Amino acid sequence: xxxxxxxPFVLSIERFAALLGVVVFVVLAEILARVNKHPAxxxxxxxxxxxxxxxxxxxxxxxxxxxxxxxxxRIIAIWQGGFSVAGAAVGVAIVTAWAxxxxxxxxxxxxxxxxxIIAWQVVLLDVAPREPVALPTEPLAxxxxxTIHLSALVPPDTPIIINLWATWCPxxxxxxxxxxxxxxxxxxxxxxxxxxxxxxxHVSRYLAEHDLQPEHVLIDTSGMLAQHYGTVGLPVTLFxxxxxxxxxxxxxxxxxxxxxxxIARLQ
Length: 267
Known about the structure:
With about 270 residues, the protein is an alpha+beta fold. It has two domains: about 5-125, no CATH class; about 140-265, Glutaredoxin (3-Layer(aba) Sandwich). Helix content is about 50%, strand content about 15%. The strands form three sheets. Strands 6-5-8-9 form a four-stranded mixed beta sheet. A three-stranded antiparallel beta sheet has the order 4-3-7. Helix 7 links the parallel strand 5 and strand 6. Helix 1 (about 15-35) packs antiparallel against helix 2 (about 40-65) and helix 2 runs antiparallel to helix 4 (about 85-100).
């Protein structure tokens, strides 16, 4: 399982785990604040969430500053993902140290914080996929109406990036130009663009209207790839290692920095 479907919202496992951890932390801190009559616990928990979030984002921006310097507006594009656990830890540590100095009770605060961390990690360990997923054996159609097998299309020992998208999906449309650009720059891996549930004619018109020319476009009208890899929602970017096994699933819009970071882990 790569995502959680919450009605109209689809959250990746990583984001759901982080959100659950935050909720557990804040709720327990509030309960302990009322039971122990320490209002400082309530103030500290909300401040910790804010500065943990800011630290997580700033840590990511600093790590990839050369890329963000070219497009500074993307610093606030948090919907693309990109957060640093180390940055979050620094933010939390600073706020907590200040609060402890100002008489924050240590044991209740530590209890709430550890409960949130445990909830976050339990979801990641329990829900994350355990069985390796190999390339599908079913044939797929290309945008030129040829039939291919992925194992024959991609050279051996070559990482693969598969982007599941649709022309009606706003985040898919936003990330597609960047993905196409990166794909054109890399000859050490293969990018496959697989629109879901759409015809070749419709996809061809969309790509022509937006002057996009990805090399490999697969027409997956039945959503076979999403079913094979067990994904929910769009867009989804699949990272396949040199062994042909799924290494990571990114649910939602992806930033250039997250994309390149994940590619580096494949090699």
